[in-house]
Q: What sequence folds into this?
């Protein structure tokens, strides 16, 4: 492995950095986007029942004790319970946008890695071919060993860039889909809770 890095030239280092970042982001977001952590079912059932029964103090306490995005969103609505429905809705939407952004954190970076890794590999290809043609211009084609160094650098960086880019792109699409589904589910839950609050105000 180390020999490939050496043969690939200086551009192998940013490609390796991209690979480490890609795996780290994927694992962090995979852990952060667990459904049971973002939208715990037991919490949703209990908080809905408490709001229907107008046990607001217990509902607020339950939200404080539950460290999940949906709990923080609903807590914002419960803090404004008793005010106009529009104010409750606005507070939920405001916190909801912040929590949605939190679920999507680092995904832009992961998408960027998927985009720049093959470009770094392509740049390595160009620099490797330049070295190869420089050898030809100075020594001709009589020394294949010197010529092979530039060609191997070109091929190794291309392969390394694609090896990083392809999984990174798959990671990005998977996590993006997972985050979007979580956000849509939270929106649906908030709409249901808002309907309960609105019915109680009528």
A:
């Amino acid at each position: 492995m180390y020999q490939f890095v050496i043969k690939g030239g200086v551009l192998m280092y940013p490609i390796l950095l991209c690979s480490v970042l890609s795996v780290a982001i994927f694992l962090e977001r995979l852990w952060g986007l667990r459904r049971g952590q973002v939208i715990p079912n037991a919490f949703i059932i209990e908080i809905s029942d408490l709001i229907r029964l107008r046990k607001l103090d217990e509902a607020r306490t339950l939200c404080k004790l539950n460290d999940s995005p949906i709990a923080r969103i609903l807590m914002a609505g419960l803090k404004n319970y008793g005010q106009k429905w529009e104010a409750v809705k606005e507070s939920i939407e405001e916190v909801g946008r912040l929590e949605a952004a939190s679920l999507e954190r680092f995904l832009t970076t992961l998408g960027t890695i998927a985009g720049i890794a093959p470009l770094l590999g392509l740049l390595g290809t160009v620099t490797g071919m330049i070295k190869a043609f420089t050898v030809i211009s100075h020594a001709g084609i009589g020394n294949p060993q010197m010529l092979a160094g530039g060609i191997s650098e070109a091929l190794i960086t291309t392969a390394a860039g694609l090896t990083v880019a392809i999984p990174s792109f798959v990671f990005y699409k998977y996590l993006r889909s997972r985050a979007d589904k979580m956000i849509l589910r939270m929106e649906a839950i908030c709409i249901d809770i808002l309907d309960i609050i609105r019915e109680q105000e009528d």
